Amino acid sequence: MKKVAALATLLTLTSALAAAPKDTLVYQSSSDIPTLDPGVTYDTASGGVVENIYETLVTYSGASLSKLEPLLATKWTISNGGKTYTFDLRKGVKFHSGNAMTCADAEYTFERNLVTNSAESGNWFLAESLLGTGANANDDKTITWARIDKAVECNNAGQLIFTLPAVDPAFLAKLAFPGQSVVDSKHAAGLGEWNGKEATWKDWVGKDLTNSKLSQTPSGTGAYKLVRKDSNTLLATAFDGYWGKKPAIKNIVIQKVSELAARQQAFLRGDADLIDGGGRAVDETQVKGKAGVAWIDNLDNTVAQAFFMNQNIKNPALLGSGKLDGKGVPATFFKDANVRRAFSYAFDYQKYITDVQKGKGKQRTMLLPEIFGGYDAKVSKYSYDKAKAESFFKRAYGGQLWKNGFTLTANYRQGSEPAQKAMEILKANVEALNPKFRINIQAKQWSEMLKDSKDGKEAMTIMAWAPDYADPDNFMYTFYSSNGYYNPRLNWKDTQVDKWLEQARSTVNTTERNRLYSLVGKKAFEQAPYILIPAGINYIFMRDNLVGVSASNYNPMISFSATGTFWKELSKK
Fold first, then answer.
1. Backbone dihedral region of 212: left (phi > 0), alpha (psi from -120 to 50 degrees) or beta?
2. N or C, where is the chain less crowded by C-beta within 10 Å?
3. What's the pLDDT tens digit per position in 398-445?
4. Which residues cross the membrane (predicted)?
5. Contact between residue 126 and residue 85 where contact means Cβ atoms under 8 Å apart
6. Dihedrals φ, ψ of 520, to 5°?
7. Could you tell me where the beta strands, DSSP code E, fall in 68-150?
8. In angstroms, rounded to a whole number, what is the distance separating the alpha carbons of residues 234 and 262?
């Protein structure tokens, strides 16, 4: 009867909003939740739920990005020169189905991720660690069942053992990613998901799990279990069989409310405890300082953003004449480092901070958040300097660029005011240097821009990277390696930088890794492959009766970014 009553309360909350009761957390989001299958979780909306109904082997210790602590594991040892990881697993843990968690479930989880490894998932970085390649067996024919099976195994003592082909200093951090949460293998197989057997593994290679049966009917070990989910509402309730401390908040209600004004009204009435805001300028005006609102500012930002200057533009439509004749640019326009340096000096970083970030921004020296190891504040950074910009433009292409001028077309994300403003700042400053310089900027659908940039068809655009795991490699390799995820959008290659990044990947010596990343930062300043956009300073806000959220325990790696904590850590007064 108690369960029926609780469900009735949740359903009432979603059909006709009332002030959120003390045992219920109401969060109004601007977006939907694509999946609840850990095997394909690769967005924050999904991750914010998955990390609360499932659990990983390890997790972050409080607000730390460098210290990890056991979760479903109780301890681990590293041997074989850093290539073997042995985990002792927690006893007495149950899934929401009632099944006991065993080592077989953990083995199944990681083998399933290596087998499927679809383009929609983040399993490429797990595969890099365990198979030596980010590809799946469809794209890399050298991947066999034997390789996958050997990579993760259970021994007779019930310990989980990972065997890596090479040292990976980021491996533990990767295991804290919500997409590596342990799955209930019996429950999954019973739904018709992969059965974990060699005989059927090839049928599941590359399979998109977004709408899997497991996504529709999840069974995790987390403090909360799913009650119901549709296109607009998710209901979850505390799991009575949870192995850890019983959560103070019993019910979780997540609602998709597209209109910002409607979210704001519900929040200010107290009908929602948390909402997606509208950006700093809007939130400071509409929400901050209002009755019943708590505001926490000056939080770490783990996103890195930049102008990409593509050195091999594969889109004739953006090239005009395709020549240095004032009417266009060649496909290799940004190949000349003097052009890139000139553009870097032409951007007004302080104006962007003042006008776009309302003074709450800061310049970085490299495309790595300063809270990660390897960041070097002493690396030089560009500033707005008309004289230096003019000087480098005059050097470019042996003086031909300054003499003839150019016309460049650059796209920005449609609907993104910050991206538009950044483009406008750069355009105005470059064109002011020489009447023969012209930059045409235009808005473009984000989905189209993502595809075209991946194919090298954007000349200059703005893109950002949020970390998958808390290790500098996830930024430095992504941005600066010629084998990195972003290189097809940039087509910049520096042999020495590639060498340093590979060396940093192959050592667990923190001092040496930091030295190597500093070298990359210095070389990147010299070569200017990107224009670094200042990083905004993060903030969050909530109803002031919500307890458990503070600057001291906010962790930017937690997917539920509305609080930077897990649901189980929250309560109400």
1. beta
2. N
3. 999 999 999 999 999 888 888 999 999 999 999 999 999 999 999 998
4. none
5. no
6. -60, -45
7. 68-70, 73-79, 84-89
8. 18
Q: Match 């539920």 to its residue by tokens.
A: 560
pTM across the whole model: 0.86
pLDDT tens string 313-335:
999 999 999 999 999 999 999 99
Structural element, H or E, at residue 428: helix 417-431
Residue closest to 475 by CA, chosen among 484, 172, 376, 483? 484
pLDDT beyond 90 at 11: no
- Percent of the chain surpassing pLDDT 70: 97
pLDDT tens digit sequence for 182-203: 999 999 999 999 999 999 999 9
Non-local (6+) Cβ contacts of 505 within 8 A are 168, 169, 170, 473, 477
Return the structure tokens found at 189. Answer: 């197989």
CA 370 vs. chain centroid, Å, equals: 16
d(CA 220, CA 258): 29
C-alpha distance from residue 176 to each of 77, 83, 317, 388, 563 (Å): 16, 18, 43, 45, 18
Distance between CA 302 and CA 537 in Å, rounded? 10
Q: List all residues 6 or more positions away from 101 whose beta carbon is below 8 Å from its beta carbon.
A: 72, 89, 90, 93, 94, 95, 182, 184, 221
Q: Which token pair is 320?
A: 């005009």
Q: How many other C-beta atoms are found inside a 10 Å radius of the C-beta of residue 407?
A: 18
Which residues in 383-475 belong to E strands, given as ranges?
Answer: 406-413, 437-444, 460-465
